[in-house]
Amino acid sequence: MIINAIKGKGRFYYSSFFGVERVVLNGKNQQLRWNSALSKIRNIGIVAHIDAGKTTTTERLLYYSGKITRMGDVDTGDTITDFLPQERSRGITIQSAAISFPWGNNCQINLIDTPGHADFCFEVMRTLKILDGCVSILDGVAGVESQTEKVWKLSHFLPKICFVNKMDRMGANFNNTVKSIATKLHTRPILINFPVFEKSENDFNEPKLIGVVDIVNQVFLKWDNPVEKVSRENIKVTPIDPESPHYQDMVKCRESLVDTLTEFDEALLSEYIDVADGDCLKISSQMLNNSIRTSTLNRNVTPVLSGSSFNNVGVEPLLDAIRNYLPSPLEARIPDLKDNSNPTKEVPAKVDPKVGLIINNDKNLCMALAFKIITDPIRGTMIFIRVYSGVMRNGSTIYNSTNGEKLRIGKLVKMNADKPQEIDHLSTGEIGVLTGSSISENITTGDTLISHSAKKDGLKTLKGKNELSLQIDPIIIPPPVFSVVLEPQTLGNKDHMDTCLNRLVTEDPSLQLSKDNETGQTILSGMGELHLEIASDKLINDMGAKVHLGKINVFYKEALEDATMWEQTTPEVESKGYHFNIRVEPLNENNLKNHQNGKGKDLIIPLRNDNNFVIMEPNENFDPNSPDWKPVLSFESIVNAITSSSLVGLQRGGKISNLPLFGCAIRVKGDWNIPLDAEKPTEVLNITRSLIQDALKKLSKDQYNVLEPIMDLNVTVNTSDMGKVSQDLTSARNANILSIEDSSTTSEAINDVIEFSNYADNMHLPKSDLSTSSNNISRGANIKVIKAEVPLQNMIAYNRTLRSLTQGRGEFHMEYNSMKKINQNRLSDILKEI
Q1: Are residues 353 and 398 in the same domain?
Q2: What is the spatial distance between Cα 413 and Cα 396, in angstroms, rounded to a whole number?
Q3: Considering its fold, how many domains does the chain have in total?
Q4: CATH of the domain at 686
Q5: What's the pTM?
Q6: Domain membership flag for residue 477
Q7: pLDDT, tens digit (0-9, with 9 covering 90-100), for 173-217
Q8: Is 748 found in the same domain as 777?
Q9: CB 3.0-4.6 Å disulfide test: which of 31, 165, 469, 704 passes with 340?
């Protein structure tokens, strides 16, 4: 057991460390001393359901690390990471915010606070893409909630720890929350600590949260007057007295912890049997921490901690857990890589303990992913990036392998929420920001950026042309489901409106712009009603755009029933050396899956919007892998031109109601040809756009369908309310009810339910010191979850209906499932509405 007092900014505060990391490389356990800068980095995200306490927890992490000297409050609107006016006025997180801070033994934590509202799921998705680990915050009263389950599935590839927050609230139940982690999230929770309460003399005789029992270090951590006093000095660390009422719980929880870990750690099992003689108390905290770390990195277990962020209980142990159990860039998963010049080729990647990830066996190859774009009033466009390999330096020339653009960056900065800090370089594993005048129009969210680590303009020295064809898998953007019509107040306001809208869409690609060809109206589409409300607020109040807003409606799409005929370049253009054969067809999901599994030879490029793709068949005469590539135009430039023309062609809409096309593939036959001396891709863009439009024009109206968004719906109700809620869903909502299940056992896989329910039943949990609230819907004995698929159009204002049917006790959660064809008996009504 090692407990230390660390001095920081004139204060002493608690910390515990074990000094040695255990690294998992190529499936083997290795020990790595704290001598590598990379081993001390933690790229983590804070994720949770809305109102679970993410931002409050982030404020406490910053305060106890010494990063800030005063804690902000969500209610007063002065938190560090929620700095947008819309965030402070509404008390919710809208966009992710990055901030870095130190914690003990020179560990650097790069933290991103993410939104919890379902409408901003894309903001969470693009953040998860570049993280190495997560902290999932759970409300101790509500337990595992719907958005928690969704984000858990999205981040299935990341190691996580859980922090059961709000344990000071009436109705909080630590044991039930831990059980729900096992049964709903399908993981093995292991207790690192558990909450301790004492009797209080307040009006309600509620037990008072005073601290936690540290199971690993066998100590009791007590915070003196946590509500009245906010300080780093108010924590007392004492060994657990065998006479203490919590001693037996600590012993049994440690036995349960060791029992779980020995399933995955033979060294710990040997120590437990041969050295400790079966006594879990004799196993050192350092060995336990090493074992917990290894099992967490392999996603075999999920460490669980408890406390109350608002009342400053349990935050320091959470900081220790982030450092001790979540991965460094050396232990993080290798990103999905592809070579656009050869889709079937596997890109070599390995981890070097000294320099981190090496891609294509080239230490000088720097690869980064652009995951977020904002516009700063002073610095202009700022591109958030995660560096995966190599070093990116100030003023370097970089290559955008997604669109083929070569550009020079300006200053590099690191963000502390909304405050930039200039730096000289970004190393492997770091998160930072690009600035510069040339980046605003040449980089978008999801682009892969390549540079040379040693030279500012060393692209030519990188090994072979194929290194400039390498890409990190792009961020998939879910299709929007709501839309609003925008019109400028006067014709003179139109240019400014368009500029502001383009900025909005650049910063948030889950917003989508389209035009109604008949009316000329601009349509802005997004992930939900709140999403569009926030975007409209920014447009009008922050950017000063003078626009009229229409009513927010469900966003419908059109799709092809049949594939078009091949459209071939005209003879006049062919005489100049250009030749293309193009067909528009419904997307074949099976072909797409085969390609993703490495079974296809076609080059498939997602168009990011509306589940549309470009499919380029192999061309024997123009092989991008060939060292004899003869055209002046690069292969990437040709692909980007076809991609751009496809986006424009499909956005013109179908013939039923001019709605954007969904689920289409633009197939380019492998006999295409271009002049070898062509220097610009303009002709390629114009020709392919014309062919796509001609192909779509030749289809009849009967060959199109109208699609509507279908949502996955979970409604949680008391058994007594189930009948009337189900009747309303099937009649008024036209829902297809899939199942009705007990709230504790809802799952798609019955085997998982059995496995993790058994685990939850067999693990030891401490005696509960807080009584549960009988009014809390997630704690009732007769709670059911109705699972259904339902058209989004029928769910508008459903919240009011559900409250009325259940006297305020019901809850529901929706998430996008798919776009489906509207049946004929509803189509005429929908078209009138459109």
Answers
A1: yes
A2: 14
A3: 5
A4: 3.30.230
A5: 0.81
A6: no
A7: 999 999 999 988 999 999 999 999 987 766 566 788 999 999 999
A8: yes
A9: 469
